[in-house]
């Protein structure tokens, strides 16, 4: 039988309740991540190579041809995965106590938040620093509009579009336009949505 997670970092990784507020190991990890974000956010955008290097130093796994615009905020960074061709606009926050995984060619609008953390509802437990983190997964070819809030444990299916300002509290199926608070599917994405004909805009 496997041993139970011993440290709060191990408990966090296992999806169990852990001390997010006072555990020294986790506090130090968040300090390191904050410093790495500060370096990336201060980078001159004209120095694309250095910005790319510093962005990759913040995040856990980054594919090819990925662009992330400052400012970027993470809790740990190490739990964030961005697939090939992702674009993340200004002001993204990855609260990555659990894995936040974006597939290939995901477009993220400005000021979006990926929030994996859950807090106890009982005040004294919340004040004692207990927290649990659940993963967020976004499939390939998803467009997430501006100021979208994704909550713990949700999955957005491949090829879907999440409308600006939505609060994603439950899974979004693949291939739909979804919007609202709480976010719900509105309709399917269909060939009628195409803007190109023979590679030329229809206008």
From TrEMBL:
Q: Which Gene3D superfamilies match?
A: Hexapeptide repeat proteins
* GO MF term set: acetyltransferase activity; O-acyltransferase activity
Q: Report the SUPFAM superfamilies cross-referenced here.
A: Trimeric LpxA-like enzymes (SSF51161)
Coiled coil ranges? none
Task: Show the CDD domains listed in the entry.
Answer: LbH_MAT_GAT
Alphabetized PROSITE patterns for the sequence: HEXAPEP_TRANSFERASES (PS00101)
Name all Maltose/galactoside acetyltransferase domain ranges: 9-64
- Acyltransferase among the record's keywords? yes
| An annotated GO cellular component | cytosol
Keyword Acyltransferase belongs to the record: yes
What are the alphabetically sorted keywords of the record?
Acyltransferase, Repeat, Transferase
**PANTHER family the UniProt entry points to:** ACETYLTRANSFERASE C18B11.09C-RELATED, SIALIC ACID SYNTHASE-RELATED
Family membership: Belongs to the transferase hexapeptide repeat family.
What is the name listed in the Swiss-Prot or TrEMBL entry for this protein?
Acetyltransferase
Q: Look up and give the organism this protein is from.
A: Granulimonas faecalis
